[in-house]
Amino acid sequence: MRSLLRMWRFVRPYRKQSVLALALLVGMVVSDLLIPRLTQRVIDDGIAQKDLDVVLSTSALMLVAAVVSALFAVANTILSVRVGQNTSADLRSALVRQVQRFSFGNLDHLQTGQLIVRATSDVNQVQMIVMMSLRILTRAPLWMLGSIVMLILTSPRIALVMALFAPLVWGLLTLFATRARPLFFRVQAKLDKLNQVLQENLAGVRVVKAFVRVDHEKSRFYRANDALTDQTIKVATLMAVLIPSMLLIVNMGTVGVVWFGGNLAFDGAFTMGETVASINYLTYSLFPMLMLGSMIGPISAADASAERILQVLDDTPQVQNRPGAHPPDQVRGRVAFENVCFSYDGDCGEPVLRDVNLVAEPGQEVAILGATGSGKSSLIHLIPRFYDVSDGRVTLDGIDVRDMPLDALRAQVGVALQEAVLFSGTIRDNIRYGRPDASEEEVIAAAQAAQAHEFITGFPDGYDTLVGQRGANLSGGQKQRVAIARALLVQPKILILDDSTSSVDVETEAKIQEALDRLMAGRTSFVIAQRVSTVLNADKIIVLDRGQVAAEGTHAELLASSPIYREIYESQLGDGNGAVAPREARS
Fold it and tell me: 244 Cβ partners below 8 Å, 6+ apart?
């Protein structure tokens, strides 16, 4: 329950509505508790005495109490729903804000499917309990306590019957609550897995069909689906045993009161009205326990969900602003790596990068080559602090990037990542994503530089063409060009292209490079490429091998001095003697 209690901070902004809902609940309980006492009066003072006036007046009071209870119930429900819905909205917003604060390192450990379940199913579980807390979970204890008080006032001897059965009910509730919580936690974990498999199936449906793996993916889904079903059945079985068991105890208590009260009535020590009122109050006192029993499942599920939500909210972003961080006065664009060591686990026990030293002067184009897994993307991710170095430092104009506010640092860096991610909306919206206030002329200029203008204007709606989910209606090369245009539009001092032209043809890539040479004059750029032809004219080429700088220089210098670079070059463009092979020979 500690996790659920910590959710209170999200209810606190709506405490006035919550207090009013609880006040209405108290009024509703008082109205309900009056009815058995009024029933007793009707029987003893009206029917038994054959006094019609008492019967009519008391019946009218019972009707008023019932109407007041109904009106209070409606108002309480409306307020409870408002508090619950607003709380869940704030909770979802808090989750999204937290995820947006996370660095790449945090997101490496939290899968998209898990985050979606936490922001939807888990939040809904908490929302339901918030609403129930202002209704059933508060009404039941009040109803029970009020009924016990009224039962004692009506007949202290019959109240002893309640004293016998109440511990049985509470013991049963405690036992089932202890067993239910871990079961519900496992249900949500199974739901995570199912959502992950479903998301992968939907996102990769084309790959599944292309590789004729439909049966395999069906099997994966069935296994995850069956695991969730089995776990849910275990929970349902537990709840199926709880409710009938509690109902049996309640019915036994009612039988006890009827038997005991009936004997007292026959002996003249108890009136018929008192017997009826006592039965009602006993039912009122035990029935709330039955209500609470029915809530054991939702409470346990909500507590498990609250813990999963708090796992996200309590997680600390691995990359944060340092105390005293301040934006640079003027950015020239000199980037330096000084004895940089980096590992994804935070230390340099098994580093991805080690002893990296390199400098990119303002306006230089620095190309980075290397085999898959050599650390190229990891290297450039350290510049905008998607990750922080494990040792050493990365500087911008001599200032450690960790001493700059993240927003100020990243405002100077334009990035086109390896995977071109587009958002729902128009092509124009996607290009203007980093600069929503950019003019139409600037959007078109960026698109032209990225060689995207021609295919965009080929669509019937041009720049107003709606982008499908994750850019499904665009080819891989088209998405990459839109992503490059998006990076160019922010007019950054530092441009990072992480293999962002891998899906375009050589001719288009050459045109993009020619446009970049013009637009990026005076700006520092880092280009990761798989094709040597992309980087032949770079001011500096860095060759990475197993996380270290194996060679550095211009194309001509590396061709003469670096065996690794020469091997890469000749495998793609050379004829074995260092010369560029004719196009026909490369096919």
Answer: none
Across 398-409, b (16+ Cβ under 10 Å) vs e yields ebebbbbebeeb
Can you tell me whether residue 137 is helix, strand or coil?
Answer: helix
User: Of the candidates 499, 518, 519, which has an alpha carbon nearest to the alpha carbon of residue 509?
Assistant: 499
- Candidates 258, 429, 277, 401; CA nearest to 334 is 401
Crossing angle of helices 440-449 and 476-489, rounded to 10°: 130
Residues in the chain: 587
Whole-number Å distance between alpha carbons of 32 and 30: 5
**pLDDT beyond 70 at 518:** no
| Confidence band for 503, pLDDT divided at 50, 70 and 90 | low
Domains of the chain: 2-313 (1.20.1560.10)
C-alpha to C-alpha distance for 245 and 139, rounded to whole angstroms? 22
3 state DSSP class of 311: helix
What pTM did the predictor assign?
A: 0.69
Phi, psi of 341 (to 5 degrees): -125, 140
Distance CA 551, CA 542 (A): 6
DSSP 3-state of 20: helix
Bridge partners of 356, per DSSP, are 340
Angstrom distance (rounded) from CA 371 to CA 21: 65
**pLDDT class for 583, splitting at 50, 70, 90?**
very low
